[in-house]
Fold each of these.
Amino acid sequence: MTDTLVSSASKEVRIGFARPFVIIGERINPTGRKILAEEMKNGNYDRVISDALAQVAAGAHMLDVNAGIPLADEPAILAEAIKRVQAVTDVPLSIDSSIVAALESGLSVYQGKALVNSVTGEDERLESVLPLVAKYGAAVVAISNDETGISEDPDVRFAVAKKIVERAADHGIPYSDVVVDPLVMPIGAINSAGKQVMHIVRRLREELKVNTTCGASNVSFGLPNRNGINCAFLTMAIGAGMTSAITSPLHAEVMQAVCGADVMMGNDPDCRNWIRKYREPAADGSDGRRARRGRRRRPD
Amino acid sequence: MTDTLVSSASKEVRIGFARPFVIIGERINPTGRKILAEEMKNGNYDRVISDALAQVAAGAHMLDVNAGIPLADEPAILAEAIKRVQAVTDVPLSIDSSIVAALESGLSVYQGKALVNSVTGEDERLESVLPLVAKYGAAVVAISNDETGISEDPDVRFAVAKKIVERAADHGIPYSDVVVDPLVMPIGAINSAGKQVMHIVRRLREELKVNTTCGASNVSFGLPNRNGINCAFLTMAIGAGMTSAITSPLHAEVMQAVCGADVMMGNDPDCRNWIRKYREPAADGSDGRRARRGRRRRPD
């Protein structure tokens, strides 16, 4: 029963096997969002703030913050974005960059225990990112690829994850602070992508006992009705042991799938969250508890 | 890779690990349907026929036919219902009764290889139903309860299933013709019901190598937004190895969950079924393939 604790100045979130699935909102990311990129570059964080608030209102437990804008001062922008987001929400953040200096800059202003996103299995990355994670007492997302790229063999990806967990331990980072991303391929291109992920997630949970995350929406790339595929993926991945995902909480259908999966895993005690969310409102505007009690099924 | 073959006079359906999930339409069942019960009792099969056609149109691969009406001549009504349904559809049927004489009457008129629904682990039931299944060369649903009732311990339910599979073998019925129903409890009352089912389904698949089915909608009994729970259940159960379910195909949301789960399991080659079903129609009324190719994502 591994718990990964992350926090803001005032709030703790635990990612864990026996806990509700953790949604890490993915929207604060200028990649592919021209307007947001321009705004962030020019010091306008209005959209960053509104995206933060909208995702938390929609049920995100954490937020990912990325400032990857070509030719911009990423360390400065990432730090500023983190300060702005922490000023308006209390959810813990995932600090997302491929630039080590930006991760450090983000960590230096962060209030609480952050999730660093991410380190891969490449030796150079391990030796530059892990010391930072250790210095700031953060948790870290471990992406299961290395110098050889991303293997289609889930057992190779498992081996890369194992290497990262072991290296983290060498730096004094416990396995409970490593959240492995098994890498999700587009299933329209690789039909076995779903089975691959389920296999590796089960091994990660049973053998390494680590928590897991993923960029969930990648699975549906190129297919119609992407939310439908994303729902199937998340539900099945949660069944296999996945404990968090970096995704958009703004799709009601996807949030419903996650809440339903929590019920199925026995992680929504007495189905309280499900009932609160989906209780039918009564005609008189009351909360429906009384109305439902008297209703009978009329199947014909 | 166990396949359970069932058939009508002209069509075969295979329930199997590496095949799309099989939906057995549940609607032709007078239990709790007063109007249908009255009609069937009076020899009016119009609704039986329209329910059959509607379920097949909605994507049912098989249909369950039940004629359990108190104080009626169930063997005669069940046989007549089967003849009427087989006259208008070519999907294989599940012959559903708790009365052995009704099962025999249904089997005697059935064209093809039926699925007999069901036998339990009680000795008296085993010795009355299994000889019938063997005589008609049918397949059979094995429900994992016995004289002691339904255990909350999934390993006890597994043991009952094992006993039925072994007893079937004594009667010359191969394990590939036994489809086990692990029994799904309402998760609103028993929070661990989901995990119980996933555990037993995995054991049934890995150790007994049998196909599985269930009355899927029972899981959501008493909860609001039942379809949402049913979707989560079916998706996760398919991930654990469930290969068929007796449920209503008339809910688009549930059918989408099943199709999405087929994609996830790698059982929808090239996602052809998914793409055919969910391809966005183009503005010009064409099938949308061309339109989609030119569309670009505008996330802001």
Note: The first strand of chain B starts at residue 3 and ends at 7.
Amino acid sequence: MKKNIRKQVRIGIIGGAKPNPESRKTAYETGRLIAEKQAVLVCGGLSGVMEAAARGHKEAGGVSIGILPGSSTKDANPYIDIPIATGLGYTRNSLVVMNSDVLIAIDGHYGTLSEIAYGFIQDKKVIGLGTWDINGILKADSPEQAVELALKPFFPLVR
Amino acid sequence: MKKNIRKQVRIGIIGGAKPNPESRKTAYETGRLIAEKQAVLVCGGLSGVMEAAARGHKEAGGVSIGILPGSSTKDANPYIDIPIATGLGYTRNSLVVMNSDVLIAIDGHYGTLSEIAYGFIQDKKVIGLGTWDINGILKADSPEQAVELALKPFFPLVR
Amino acid sequence: MKKNIRKQVRIGIIGGAKPNPESRKTAYETGRLIAEKQAVLVCGGLSGVMEAAARGHKEAGGVSIGILPGSSTKDANPYIDIPIATGLGYTRNSLVVMNSDVLIAIDGHYGTLSEIAYGFIQDKKVIGLGTWDINGILKADSPEQAVELALKPFFPLVR
Amino acid sequence: MKKNIRKQVRIGIIGGAKPNPESRKTAYETGRLIAEKQAVLVCGGLSGVMEAAARGHKEAGGVSIGILPGSSTKDANPYIDIPIATGLGYTRNSLVVMNSDVLIAIDGHYGTLSEIAYGFIQDKKVIGLGTWDINGILKADSPEQAVELALKPFFPLVR
């Protein structure tokens, strides 16, 4: 794993801290699939969609990065492998996007909306799974389709 | 002016860098009205809606704050009185909102969408003039109505 | 004042939150002189050296900008005219420097040291009044000399 | 490795982008020793001391995190495993420190000085190898001693 981690595609999962049970399940499943595809999971590192996705991802053997609002790496949920403290508060949402090659939005409230907006500001592909209906989002019907959309016709990754 | 500037309500104008002529005129007019109401204008300090609003505001005698993405205060449009450099790039959008008591969104693209989202994240009132249709925005039909909505039943300002 | 505020030189005062009485007096006097010279005072907006300088500056009729660590403009000391919230915590120290044309360091601990370092990173002139002994600082013996050094052979200010 | 990466101590290496050959060698050796001790290397991700340390660390099998000033993960030197983009410019220096449990400063100029200052602001242990002479730094005479000081009587790490 280690040898390739920098070259792996990074899929950012953005979504609410208080999702309903179905969105939580969707996030878990999406995280799991991302690990199976050998991609890195990036998220905000906290609870809800972020935690469910990181848990699914970790259980399938993936390595995840959590870009935290607080100034302590301890704040990350237990499934995050690489917690990154920023001390920026919600202003860090822009950095979650900056560190993702492509985004999957699941459920979510205004925080997620800010990240969707940053996705387009930063010219990232944004895939939606039951989230805000914003012009430009590619809608997916399932975690499988979302991850497929995230990885297929992918730009040549140079990092 | 000086004696009271800290106590004045700060109205943030958010909007696109490349508005159509009508939105530019709306921004100009809104900026002018904000000055007439003795309120401070806060914006992103650059071109388009930001510049038109700052120009209207300055021509009516107001004092404006521009929260800039770059690291030089020189980047501000010529109508900004207090340019603030951040060096944060678009990540500074959150700070435009943080320094406003209430927001008026005019036209705008994804940058404006991120600021609308931060408005709700930070529990600010967000008024819309021909902008994104996001749940929670108070729609106004004219600059007059927008500024009236921004200032009427206003929370007691403590700063 | 208003007409010229953008064109006025901005002198940043950096220094500790808990100075001894003498440093507090030095800060007060320096703030006062900055106002007399028609320059804007920039500081971190909180207590100690920042508050004493802002108080002296305000009592002499100046306009001051406080770049705050927190996310609320209410955090500023009562003598700040233009509080700017950043929500960046101590990471905002870089922005205090970024918004100053020249710096005067008074007393101070590690926070001040970080601002002195940013002064040199950002190619600003740094004047010291009883502060860290760092290579590159221009030492002054009095507030008068510090403000004189800050303003004399000054670069042509374009903003 | 993966199982434990979050629990590993993170040692931040701070130092100049243009070190002399000896400091480069010191950085390389320090990076190597950090990997041998099963610790994660954190640095600014760019050239000079950062690159030499990351190279030594990678050659000894370590995993490194680079907290970058720019907005692209591509900016990292080739030995960084986990590049983190911030888009904050030099303001990111505070985040390099925030993501380290303990710091080793090697050589360095004003950027390094700002990171040493943030080390003390954030209550981190700061070890010096031929760097600034700042009160509070624990001086080491060799990479071996620096890494030993970094890891011995270490606080119980909870993350």
Note: Residues 21-36 of chain C form the longest helix (16 residues).
